[in-house]
Amino acid sequence: MATWKSALAGAISEPLAEEIDGFETQMILRRQGALDEAVFAELRLRRGVYGQRYDNGRRHDGLVSRSLDFPSGETTKGPGTYWDAPGMMRLKIPGGLLSAEQLEVLAELAEEYADGVLHVTTRQDIQFHFVHIEDTPDLMRRLGAVGISTREACGNSVRNITACPISGVCADEAFDVTPYAQGLNAYLLGHQAVQDFGRKFKISFSGCGGSACALANIHDIGFVAATREVDGQTRRGFRAYVGGGLGAVPHSAQLLSEFVDEQELLPLTHAICLLFAEHGEKRNRARARLKFVVAKFGIDRFREMVAEKRQTLADDPRWSTYLAPFVEQPVASQAPGAASGASRGTALSHWQQTNVRRQRQSGYSTVTVALPLGDFTGDQSRALADIARSYLDGTVRLTVEQNIVLRWVSDADLATLYAQLADAGLAQPGAETIADITSCPGTDTCKLGISSSRGLAAELRSRYLARTLDPAIAALRVKVSGCFNSCGQHHIADIGFYGVSRKLNGYTVPHFQLVIGGKWAENGGAYGLAIGAIPSKNVPHALSMVLDHYATARAEQESFHDFVRRVGKAELKTLIAPTTVVPSYFEDRSFYSDWGDPREYTTGDMGQGECAGEVISPVQFGLAESEKEAFSAQLALDAGQAEQAAQAAYRAMLAAANALLRGKQLIVEEAEQIVDNFRRLFIDTELFFDPYAGGKFANYLLTAHDARDELPSLDSARRRVEEAQLFIEAAHACHGRM
């Protein structure tokens, strides 16, 4: 039987070669105008090929400085096109599992086709940036030769299946979930049942329910390992959760089944995928995720539908054969040794405290390589390949926190391993601490980025790595997204930030919304909400204020999540209020550029000067009123008052809509009039059409208006509150465009 390691490698298969040849042909047809752009867009996305924002300025992002040559005339930050400017290519790395050979090939490809950097994503993927589309077929072929595919890494497909990176060596797990993640990925890749989705579909595997290694609560399907006694024998299986997701308005996954036997894993997933293809939204992409299907039918009816669909499936031998190549467990490359000594206060000792944890196998440890912003270089990838062969079981694991985990390190080798990591620039301490900040690409390369998430993350990382922290603060997670879409997972962080902008005194100022109330533990156990927009340059100060308050006012052993619930968001909002003030352009111009980029954030009207700053428009007053109502909704939600929260969120959207109407010199008071006129003047004209989200934010008001007399649940009220905040942000953006 093949082992799970040997299943990773091998020459490129004939079917894969034919697929890549086909994609190359589709590229030619698109160039000739013989293939529709919308069709080709989905085809290239399903092959992992993205367009990206580009910028030929030099950026200092904490690891490398990128300065690239672009086609003539492309001299400013902009959306880019995938034909005449570099793009991004995403690889599919199931469970984040990479062999030493694959690491070496990835190093070569990053240097030959990209900018020399390998970027780890929050789905345990690798991304290459600044890749030209003409090179992608050759890149795919070289990846395929070492068992790596880009197929369905993007697009309306089953995305990379994630899994706990320490599964198999963790003391708290029920069993190793790695074989099941690998087997399910192999089964679903290219499967006919997953080719007719309206949006993406995400699956994860957790070895236990208490940690956050695979975040079951935020996935379309989240599997958590469990065992059950059946006829005197221990059976492996999974608690199955469905309908989770982050995005603009997050949904918590709901329990589908307490126990799914391992033999039912593949057919159950197959049935759920068929239901998603059948009932998932196809036209309105804003509602085209499984979470909306579950919400539409309710979890009880959805559970019945899954059972019914499962019964229609004919027995398929692949349900067991696709697991078979991955079931053999890894073994250590050598016998363990005794732990090496280290003097207190040394760099080695500090690194061991934050980056090393004991395995359940005596004599071995796992080591986390902390990657600033998820980036490492080609040379560092080769160094990791050498380490994997010398000290490990021949593999490494990527993590959802954008790091790399080394498993099966003999305790006797820790000091020597540290020295080799240090030589490669890979021995930074602070893994899984507040300094280990997750960030999406933001304005560096993402077309949807509003604020510089990477720039802010790099700044915060440098500040907290240099400080000796209270252990309770050191253990917190901070996550940053460049926009509301939560690619940086800000909703489930202890403290999250997402990028927004504000038009002030004729200038556009980069901001971040501060999100609190999330819970990283328990597989992403709770979602936070935004309490206020802070100018980017004040975010570090605001974060320090919140952390200092927690350090001095928390009860003994009180978690940050519990602290927020006890003191309330109102107190924390008042605390950070001074940091929300933006000085005028002429008082401090630094506020008008973003982290990591000294240039002015946008090309504001330089001619208005200070006089224009003294005039506060009725629109600004109205938007301020809407934010006040939105925060009242949060307080009601925290108090468990679902109806009051939903009504306040509805009033907040009405206030924001009415503010924009006042900008049109239209004064109305009745809700029906506000909604009708807003539809006529802003929705039908697409003036409110947000370039980042299409028309879905406008629909939040219409939906809330139609449901204003309904009695909400706490969960639906929480979504209404989240929708109100996003509607207000869209209103700010609309006002800026006006």
Give an account of the 3D structure.
- By secondary structure, the protein is α+β, with helices and mostly antiparallel strands.
- The chain has 5 domains: 116 residues, no CATH class; 158 residues, Sulfite Reductase Hemoprotein, domain 1 (2-Layer Sandwich), CATH 3.30.413.10; 77 residues, 2-Layer Sandwich (Alpha-Beta Plaits); 173 residues, Sulfite Reductase Hemoprotein, domain 1, CATH 3.30.413.10; 123 residues, Nucleotidyltransferases  domain 2 (Four Helix Bundle (Hemerythrin (Met), subunit A), Up-down Bundle), CATH 1.20.120.
- The N terminus is likely disordered.
What would you say about this model in short?
It is built from 24 helices and 24 strands.
Q: Any descriptors?
A:
Alpha-Beta Plaits; 24 helices; 5-stranded antiparallel β-sheet; alpha+beta; 738 residues; disordered N terminus; Sulfite Reductase Hemoprotein, domain 1
